[in-house]
UniProtKB/TrEMBL annotation:
Species annotation: Streptomyces tauricus
Domain of life (superkingdom): Bacteria
Family recorded in the similarity comment: Belongs to the metallo-dependent hydrolases superfamily.
Record protein name field: Amidohydrolase family protein
Amidohydrolase-related domain segment(s): 8-289
Alphabetized InterPro entries for the sequence: Amidohydro-rel (IPR006680), Metal_Hydrolase (IPR032466), Metallo-dep_Lactonases (IPR052350)
Pfam families associated with the record: Amidohydro_2 (PF04909)
Length: 289
C-alpha cells in the first residue's frame, strides 16, 4: 500500500455510550459497534495510515453532540474540522449557527449534516423550512453533508440546483447497492448530482455496502467496489472527490488500515497529482482545513 503522508480523512465518528446511546446501533450485525470509540482509539491507526488531519462527523440528531465535538476538535490536533448537527427547520437557525461558532472549538465548525436517510419523505430536502435552513448554512460559510439513500438522490439534485451558493458534500457515494452489484438507477442520479458545480463527494462508506454476511479478503471487497468508485471518479473527477474512512463503522468489514488499502487500490489509475487531490487537496479546500 502507498502511504500518503499528508492524507486527510474527511469522514469519521467517535462516541461514548456512557454519555448517550447511539440508537441506530440495532441488531446483531451492528453489535460490534456497541462500545466506546474515542479519538485516542483513532489516533494510532490514523497516523499509521499517514493521516495528519481528520473531519469529525455527527452521528445522532442531538443538539448537545455538536458542542462536544467542537471541544474535542479544540483538544486534539488530529481533528481539523467538525460537521455537526442542528435543526435546520428551527426559525432561529442562523442564530444557532452563530452561537455554535462562539463555543470552545467553534472555529472548527465546517459543516452541518442531518440524517436524511432516515426521513420517510424522499423530498425532505425540498421542504420550504429545510430549504430556508440550508440557506442559513450557506450564509454562515459552511457546507452541507448529504447522508442519503439512492432513492433520495433526485431530491439532492434539485436542492443543490436551487442553492448554487451552498456546497453539498455527498457522503458514501449516496450508499449505492454494492452488495447486489446493481449500478442503475443509482448511477444515473449520481451523475446528475455530479453535473452540478457546487457538489463534491466522499470516497467513503463503500466497504459496509458490500455483502457483510460473507467473509472475503480486502482485495475481493475492493474488486466489488471498483465499478462504483470508477463511476465516482468519472463523474466528479479527483478534484471533487475526497477520501473518508467512515471509522469506526468500517470496522464491521475491515480495519482502518484496510479501508486505506482499499482506497489506495481504487485510485491506482490516477496520476500523483490526482491522488493528492483525493487524499488531501479536495478535503482541505472544501472544509478549509
Amino acid at each position: 500500500m502507498t502511504v500518503h503522508t499528508g492524507t486527510v480523512d474527511a469522514h469519521h465518528h467517535v462516541w461514548d455510550l456512557s454519555v448517550r446511546d447511539q440508537d441506530w446501533i440495532v441488531g446483531p450485525e451492528l453489535a460490534p459497534l456497541r462500545r466506546n470509540f474515542t479519538v485516542q482509539d483513532l489516533e494510532a491507526e490514523a497516523r499509521a495510515a499517514g493521516v495528519h488531519r481528520t473531519v469529525l462527523v455527527q452521528t445522532v440528531t442531538v443538539a448537545e453532540e455538536t458542542p462536544e465535538f467542537l471541544t474535542l476538535a479544540d483538544e486534539h490536533d488530529l481533528i481539523g474540522g467538525v460537521v455537526g448537527w442542528t435543526d435546520l427547520t428551527r426559525p432561529d437557525v442562523a442564530d444557532e449557527l452563530a452561537r455554535l461558532r462562539e463555543l470552545p472549538g467553534g472555529r472548527c465548525l465546517r459543516g452541518i449534516r442531518h440524517q436524511v436517510q432516515g426521513e420517510p419523505d424522499p423530498e425532505w430536502l425540498l421542504r420550504p423550512d429545510v430549504r430556508r435552513g440550508l440557506g442559513a448554512v450557506a450564509a454562515a460559510g459552511l457546507v452541507y453533508d448529504l447522508v442519503v439513500l439512492p432513492h433520495q438522490l433526485p431530491a439532492c439534485v434539485r436542492a443543490a440546483a436551487a442553492l448554487p451558493g451552498l456546497t453539498f458534500v455527498l457522503d458514501h457515494l449516496g450508499k449505492p447497492p454494492i452488495a447486489s452489484g446493481e449500478l442503475e438507477p443509482w448511477a444515473t442520479h449520481f451523475r446528475a448530482l455530479a453535473a452540478l458545480p457546487n457538489t463534491v463527494c466522499k470516497l467513503s462508506g463503500m466497504v459496509t455496502e458490500t455483502d457483510l454476511t460473507r467473509r472475503r479478503s480486502p482485495q475481493a471487497r475492493r474488486r466489488e467496489m471498483l465499478p462504483y468508485a470508477d463511476t465516482a471518479l468519472d463523474a466528479f473527477g479527483p478534484g471533487r472527490l475526497m477520501f473518508g474512512s467512515d471509522w469506526p463503522v468500517c470496522t464491521l468489514a475491515t480495519t482502518y488500515g484496510g479501508v486505506a488499502f482499499m482506497a489506495d487500490g481504487l485510485t491506482l489509475g490516477l496520476s500523483g497529482d490526482e491522488r493528492a487531490q483525493v487524499f488531501e487537496g479536495t478535503a482541505t479546500r472544501v472544509y478549509r482545513l
